[in-house]
Every structure is written in C-alpha cells, then in structure tokens.
Automatic annotation (TrEMBL):
<keyword id="KW-0520">NAD</keyword>
<protein>
    <submittedName>
        <fullName>D-isomer specific 2-hydroxyacid dehydrogenase, variant</fullName>
    </submittedName>
</protein>
<dbReference type="Pfam" id="PF02826">
    <property type="entry name" value="2-Hacid_dh_C"/>
</dbReference>
<dbReference type="InterPro" id="IPR036291">
    <property type="entry name" value="NAD(P)-bd_dom_sf"/>
</dbReference>
<dbReference type="GO" id="GO:0051287">
    <property type="term" value="F:NAD binding"/>
</dbReference>
<dbReference type="InterPro" id="IPR050223">
    <property type="entry name" value="D-isomer_2-hydroxyacid_DH"/>
</dbReference>
<dbReference type="InterPro" id="IPR029752">
    <property type="entry name" value="D-isomer_DH_CS1"/>
</dbReference>
<dbReference type="InterPro" id="IPR006140">
    <property type="entry name" value="D-isomer_DH_NAD-bd"/>
</dbReference>
<dbReference type="GO" id="GO:0016618">
    <property type="term" value="F:hydroxypyruvate reductase [NAD(P)H] activity"/>
</dbReference>
<dbReference type="GO" id="GO:0005829">
    <property type="term" value="C:cytosol"/>
</dbReference>
<keyword id="KW-0560">Oxidoreductase</keyword>
<feature type="domain" description="D-isomer specific 2-hydroxyacid dehydrogenase NAD-binding">
    <location>
        <begin position="121"/>
        <end position="239"/>
    </location>
</feature>
<dbReference type="GO" id="GO:0030267">
    <property type="term" value="F:glyoxylate reductase (NADPH) activity"/>
</dbReference>
Length: 256
C-alpha cells in the first residue's frame, strides 16, 4: 500500500475533549509522520474545515467518532479513512462510517504483549497487596516491620479463568503458563492453538467463575458482552479460605 502524500491532512484527536497538542508527539515519530502527512489538531482542523477538509482522522484514547464529527472536520466529504491507535473500535460508530463509505482501520497485535503485561501487573498487585503495602510503608503507621500484615496469596499453581481468549487473552495465558497455573477460558469459539500449546481448557462462563482463583476479562464492549458480569455471576465465584476467608476470587478487567 503506497504511503500518503505530504498533502494528506490528518486530524489527530485524543481524549473526550478531542483536543491534542501535536507538539507533544515524540519528536522522532512526528518527524517520520510529517515526511508523509500534515498533522493538525482538532481546533485547527475544525476552523479550516470549509477550505481545507481533513483527509484522515487519527484517534487516540477512545475519542467518540461518528457522522457529526466527520461532518465537522470534512464537510465536503473528503475524508478517506478513520485510523485508530489500538485494536478497539467500539468508540467509532461503524454503522455511520459504513453509511458514509469511510474505511475504519486499527492496529491489532501491536500492543497485545504490552497490554498482557499490564493485566498481569494488576493481577499480581491484587494477589500480593502491592499497592496497599506500598502505601503503608510510606505512611506514618509504618513503625515496626510485620511480615504477615500484607502477605497476600499465591498466584503460582492456582487456576486462572480468561474470558475472551483472543490476541491479548492468549498473551495472558502464556504468562499464566509460566506460573504453572491451570488455565480455563470462555470464548465465542474454541482456541485450539492455545489448547494445544498452553493447555487451556474451554469451559462455560459459569464453570469458569466457579472454579477460578483469578478471573481476567479481555473482551470488547458489544451488545453481547454488556452485562456479562453482574451480581449473579459474581456470586458464583468461590470464597477463599484461611486468612482470606472474607474475600472472593480476584477479578481483573482489561475489557473495553
């Protein structure tokens, strides 16, 4: 696919306010981009839309993109594409883009490993009380070393349940295998590769919640997944034992 020409006008949008300081882009990345396109922020693009409509909208941080925004930035319908930094496109009205004949692009796979790292960091922080322990050690209450106060619980050799075993879910499963965990998953369809290579087992959502010590949600926000986990599902999770008898299965979400 040929690179766009330097006359291609790209509106870079980030955050709910749709504002973005182009100068804050990493200088090396910006230099590479500006060899091929002209970068403009939302206010500049909107102010000059009648005379210089944008050719591409590039979104960061889940800016809501629909017909209204497209019309504001490209009233002459010169827009050629909406490009999203990241895999999720649930913030883009795909029906309206389809109606306007505008392609929507994303970047699947680029951040799967990094996202799985962060999911694993959350899981470890919950299991080992890392955030609470850090706050305690920095507070005035920390006067005597007591090694049992924030002991937490084991992760290794426990059961992890992954809801959504796509790219990111599979990366999380790979990390779980390194901790010798039993891996359960619930998915729209079987992931035979993960079953063969990682020993993952496909189960119903109810069974996953009943049997898992840790539950990780890695699924997109769709009509099918809205309300997927609510009070009835939380009640299925098993209570912990011993010093954690007052708590239940840990749940980490990386869903959108």
């Amino acid at each position: 696919m040929p690179l766009p020409s330097s006359s291609c006008r790209v509106a870079v949008l980030v955050g709910p306010e749709r504002g973005f300081d182009v100068d804050s882009i990493d200088p090396t990345i910006r230099q590479q981009l500006e060899q091929h396109v002209q970068l403009v922020d939302y206010e500049t693009a909107k102010a000059s839309a009648e005379t210089e409509p944008v050719d591409v909208i590039a979104t960061f941080a889940h800016v809501l993109v629909g017909k209204e925004l497209v019309t504001a930035l490209s009233p002459s319908r010169a827009l050629k594409a909406v490009v999203n930094y990241g895999v999720g496109v649930d913030h883009i009205n795909l029906d309206e883009m389809r109606e306007l004949g505008i392609p929507v692009c994303n970047t699947p796979g680029v951040l799967s490993g990094a996202t799985a790292d962060m999911a694993w960091a959350l899981l470890m922080a919950c299991a080992r009380n890392i955030v609470q322990c850090d706050a305690y050690c920095r507070s005035d209450a920390y006067t005597v070393y007591r090694n049992m106060i924030f002991l937490g619980r084991d992760v290794h050799h426990k059961t992890i349940g992954i809801v959504g075993l796509g790219r990111i879910g599979t990366e999380i499963a790979r990390r779980a295998k390194g901790f010798h965990m039993r891996i359960l998953y619930h998915n729209r369809s079987p992931n035979k590769d993960a079953e063969d290579k990682l020993g993952a087992t496909l189960v119903s959502l109810d069974d996953l919640l009943k049997e898992s010590d840790y539950v990780v949600l890695v699924c997109p926000c769709t009509p099918e997944t809205t309300g997927l986990i609510s009070t009835p599902q939380l009640k299925l999770m098993k209570p912990l034992t011993g010093s954690h008898a007052h708590t239940h299965t840990y749940t980490c979400t990386y869903s959108r």
